Amino acid sequence: MEKIIIIKYGELSTKKDNINFFLNILKTNIKNSLKDECIIDYDRGRMFITNINNYDKVINILKNTFGIHEINVGYKLNDNNLETIESDLKVLIEDKDFKTFKVETKRSYKKYKMNSMEISKYLGGVVLKFKNNIKVDVHNPEVVINVEVRNDYAFIYFDKENGLGGYPVGSLGKGLLMLSGGIDSPVAGYLALKRGVKIEGVYFESPPHTSEAAKNKVIALARILTKYSGYVKLHIVNFTNIQEAIYKNIPHEYLITIMRRMMYRISERLANKNNCKIIINGESIGQVASQTLTSMQAINSVVNIPVIRPVACLDKLEIIDIANKIGTYKTSILPYEDCCTIFVPDHPVINPEIEKCIEYEKLIDFNVLIEEALNNIKTLKIEEVDTTFNDLL
Fold first, then answer.
1. Boundary residue ending a domain (145, 165, 185)
2. 214 half-sphere exposure, CB direction, 13 A CA radius
3. Domain containing 187: what range?
């Protein structure tokens, strides 16, 4: 008997002819995260990890890996003979303390001498005879004994850990995440990762109006996301000259709209340069003035690249729940202002007109300013290390 980890795919199982493409990326992502001598094999139904030194460490990594539906610590038997299954099962349950149980059998080897229900019934009888004062409970058992019969061997496993589901990161291309220091954009990045999109980040700083602490807060958020994605490239754009030009020349009710249009223009150029197929942001419909449908249309009109908004239809409490779950919330609420909050007018327009945006933008030489910002971008490679936010200050 060999102790192993068994991974179940969930949604990936629906991919049929394309499944090997996704599974190969999942295997690569796991191998890159584990950074040790584990052996990873897979077939269309399961992925198996063997030669494991630290099971807790491996399971914690797998729980944060997209593309995994369920994680089981199990045992691979030397053969699929019923006698072997019976004897090894007795060894495995001897020290287990439970009062109720059920046996669930999957039989991928259809030529086996018994069908799944017959195997479950037989092994249930074995357990009842072997353990005292226990009974079968098919609805709410304390222990589920899972048996899988393959062509040449069998598996037995008990407890399970739920995975994150989704698709393996990188299986569906790359997107550029507009990462502010707020609550919403890290959640949007997480949800994009769940759909298999590898992310790079762009952060707009405006020194001296925004602080070094605000930038380090965004770096800390990017580092949290690396737990789910591997490293993240973070592109830092100096937005000071653009923002000051907007503030000095544009009617103040249109400040936020024009500022966002400039950010979108820069993001599109940066995305194209880095082979990102989409822009991702944390806009939620109606949350602020720049996130009304009319505002989104006016801002979005300056780019041709698709823009996705994973949290667009979530309310704030739903977004906060996800932020707490993924570990970004406490960092996001640290009181350091970003570009979008330092020059907010008293009465921003909520239904901007595209024609007025175009007219007002003629008041500044924004193409020169955008080119200057693009030529001075700083790019950091953010990796998951044991660095707290306070260490960055």
1. 165
2. 22
3. 174-392
Task: Enter the tokens of residue 389.
Answer: 């936010």
Asked whether the beta carbons of 339 and 205 are under 8 A apart, the reply is yes
Q: In total, how many domains does the chain have?
A: 2
193 and 341 within one domain? yes
Taking only the tens place, the pLDDT of each residue in 190-204 is 999 999 999 999 999
pLDDT digits over 24-83, tens only?
A: 999 999 999 988 778 999 988 899 999 998 899 999 999 999 999 999 999 999 999 999
Residue 217 CB-half CA count within 13 A:
25
Closest CA to 156 of 98, 103, 115: 103
In the block, residue with structure tokens 């299954």: 85
Angle at CA of residue 114, ends 110 and 118, nearest 5°: 125
Query: 244 and 105, same structural domain?
Result: no
DSSP 252: G
Through-space distance between the first and last CA atoms of the chain, rounded to whole angstroms: 51
